[in-house]
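Agenda item 2: pyridoxal-5'-phosphate complex prediction
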Amino acid sequence: MGEEQRRAPLFEALQTYAGRVRAPLHVPGHKMGRGADPEWRAFLGERALSIDQTEAPGLDDLHAPEGVIAEAQRLAAAAFGAWRSYFLVGGTTAGLHALILAACTPGETIVVPRHAHRSVLGALILAGLRPRWVRVAFDPELGVATGADRASLKAALPGAAAAVLVHPTYYGITSAIAAEIELIHRSGLPVLVDEAHGAHFAFHPSLPPSAVSLGADGVVQSLHKTGGSLTQSSLCHLPRGSRLDPLRVQEMLRLVQTTSPSYLLMASLDAARRMLALEGRSAWDRTLALAGEARRRVEAIPGLRVYPTDDATKLLIDVRGRSVSGFRAAEWLWEEAGVAVEAAGLTYLLAVLTPGDTPETVATLVAALERLPSDGGVPALPPEPPWPEVVMTPREAYLGRKQAVPLAESVGRIAAEMVAPYPPGIPVVAPGERLTRDVVDYLSFAARAGWHLQGPADPLLRTIQVVVE
Ligand SMILES: Cc1ncc(COP(=O)(O)O)c(C=O)c1O
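Presented output:
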């Protein structure tokens, strides 16, 4: 990477401003911490609060950048190999919303894999789009989604306005994304990639390639997940040759992002980009070595197996051989050993390693896993959910008049909310879809089994929200 990557223009400008200002007669009202709760100030430190600023002199404007933010975004584009990069203060959620709003107009059809994150469904609601869902392949043993089904993707493309891909999955599993992008481009559609879990990919050759280098048209990455920036800060990239109009993307970013973007978040993106550009290769070298060591040691524990993820820094641990569910194992690890994993499912635990990990964190995980007790077995994996019948757009169903009805009495109605039970971790129903007998039976089973249900207003799903017809 070039010399210019040693700079962090926004972070530097904030420090200069904090050192120079004598009378900050503007918001934020805590005035560099002086007006903040003393315990909070002491905890966070005055220096952190001194750079929690707004569009003060020399600090540029995220929504019309011409100075240090423009420069910081240019450096990010260079580091990630993109044509244009934009800072996000509303997470990857905001970036996906903006890209989808930019690529489509109301009423159009968009191709979306069923395992897409709920932020994509949110974009469909905002944009008034009709989803054409793509079937998802599952690992038959662990029951986790491994990617979009190619034949289903191909069949969904004709007549659509854009397609979304998820790369990698939450579990670090990638599909043949280069071939998928090519397939979608052959139909003339732009490809929007949710790379929330791949912000580190560009910085090490043993990690999967980033969609930025594979010809996608828009890519969003949660730098806060694996890239070292603060929670909520993400990046939206337009790769070279993107079919999206940057002016329209910026317009949509202005629509979905706050007018008071946090300079702490933006400076953390600037600093994280610098660190990745300068030290990413060596830092991820160490992380991959540590993950390899962790994998070997966990595999050596009787009853445990580590799934061969494409991103080796994701440890997807199959706990079935230990006669314990992943949910129970995660609870035990936390309560008995202070080990907090990223996620758990019926059959697995997911541990995420980054350059912030050390041999000690791995040793603590391994020592706890060695003591993991069995808990009388693991319930069988659920069958694949029934295929949805879309009868109106998510926007019409979600934003229209709705009512809660007992789940048992909802057969034949149109859902006005999403329900995604874990497992299988994908929506069984989304707003605008018919609640068929099969769907209601599936949801009743999931609710009775006590699975975590993402989406419904009633967390126990005694009732479900449906469209008033
Ligand atoms: C696959 C995927 N996409 C998008 C998001 C949304 O990202 P953010 O939390 O940065 O808004 C997440 C968050 O967990 C995710 O897992």
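Discussion summary: The CA atoms of residues 220 and 236 lie 4 Å apart.
Owner for follow-up: CH.
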